[in-house]
Amino acid sequence: MRPPLPLLLLAAVLLPLAAAQGFRGFSYLLDCGASARTTDSRGLRWDPDAPYVSAGTSRVLDLPLPGLLDPTLATLRSFPHRPGAKFCYTLSVDPNRRYLVRPTFFYGAPSPPPPVFDLLVDGTFWTAVNTTDDALAGAASSYEGVFPARGRNMSFCLGVNKEYTDTGPFISALQVIQLDDPVYNATDFRTSAMGLIARTKFGSTGSVERYPDDSFDRYWEPLPDSKHSVSSTHNVTSADFWNLPPPDVFNTAFVAEQDAPLVLQWPPMPLRNDSYYVALYFADTLPENSRTFDVYINDYLFHKGLNVTSSGLSVFATQWILSGLTSVILTPASPSVLPPLINAGEVFGLFPLGRLTHTRDALALESIKKNLTNVPEDWNGDPCMPSGYSWTGVTCDEKGPKIRVLSLNFSSMGLSGSLSPDIAKMTALTNISFANNNISGPIPNLSNLSKLQQLHLQDNKLFGSVPQSLGTIKTLREL
Fold first, then answer.
1. Domain spans of the chain?
2. Given this model, what pLDDT does residue 13 score?
3. CATH class belonging to 8-13+194-352
4. Residues 408-449: tens digit of each pLDDT
5. CATH topology of 8-13+194-352 equal to that of 28-179?
6. Mean pLDDT over residues 115-139, rounded?
């Protein structure tokens, strides 16, 4: 099936942006499990993660050669194995921006096998984490996604899926970096998020390109090829491109042989049949020169008559259908006498943003949480979503136009504190139980809960009278 016509855009000088020195706005580098700040070889400062997470246990790895490793890999935070629970980092963000999210996992030993678990951002299921192969190789695993801020806080969570393993999740480091407005702005982040498949610097034989060369610490993996690799020096300005790639990615390239197409199998892994964001970057290796060629992906025309100069350009599609192994083919086009070339590329998978709990219910639950002590460790992130990861004791209705909280079963949880009057704002509630806890204070006015059927408050330390307003709730059958 032919891919749908993509949105193809040619990069131009749009904004006079300079490469960022450091990270702008709300950005976080968290060294998970660390007790003090650390600084890596690039001069980046990593902060302990404890202020941003309320669960988990710190662990220092027994590394034989810690001096050879990134200092953030020397510690990790591990979480208990509680199926259906999610353990979240809560981070302040700008609700009008989008963020690069990169968790890193280093288990430290191949045996026993590392746990498999889910990654969740706000109400969205992102992906399953399986670091087994990297652990066998003694390597760290990183995942990268781009997510919109959907409020003033972003929750990044590790989810315990009972279908995977019988040990709890872990994390070594977490980066959440605010992106500049033009970066990946052709994607509709009202409905979608992006998960990185590959980001490649063609023709490079060096190390991974990242900060400070890349303003957002994106990782550009080298891909050498003795037959087609060419290196040169450019004065390409990063600000000339919407996605602000580091200028150095234009200093290496794959160049086709004269009068022949350049054929790449890239990305190097098979892809499931789905929509992908594809961005390709080009700059002529010869100053004051240009070359023209056509770009095909899996035999479908991606861009015709691309004219590449030494100042560089990029083309990208926001929803290009890919499936299986992918071939990028560059074919010479008249009147060019120079063969085609390519410098770098990015491929992201697109996936839908999950729904969120109705705002009024979510705020009411946060108020209930603040009034209580000894609350469950997984009372973080969205109270209902993603599906299967609601807070302990919270039952939700996901079928309607708004996701509503239907039931609160907090009996025998060892809770203390008081009952927030904001519970009366959760107007879809049919059942409430705080039975057998250590809660004190009065019973709030619940007359707005017109659907309430059961209310269990026994075996606490409540005082005052039973509100007469309970008698106005016609649906109430059990008190």
1. 8-13+194-352, 28-179, 359-472
2. 28
3. mainly beta
4. 999 999 999 999 999 999 999 999 999 999 999 999 999 999
5. yes
6. 95
Distance CA(408)–CA(391), nearest Å, equals 10
- The two tokens of residue 374 are 């000894």
What pLDDT score was predicted for residue 64?
59
Q: What is the pLDDT of residues 1-56, one digit of tens each?
A: 334 333 344 433 222 222 233 788 899 999 999 999 989 888 899 999 999 999 99
Rg of the Cα atoms in the chain: 26
CATH no., domain 359-472: 3.80.10.10
pLDDT recorded at residue 239: 72
pLDDT tens sequence across 315-324: 999 999 999 9
CA distances from 20 to 177, 179, 180, 238 (A): 12, 10, 9, 10
Give the model confidence (pLDDT) of 70-111 as tens digits. Answer: 788 999 999 999 999 999 999 999 998 999 999 999 998 878
Tell me whether residue 402 is exposed, middle or buried, using C-beta atoms within 10 angstroms of its C-beta: 0 to 12, 13 to 18, 19 or more. Answer: middle
Architecture of domain 28-179: Sandwich (2.60)
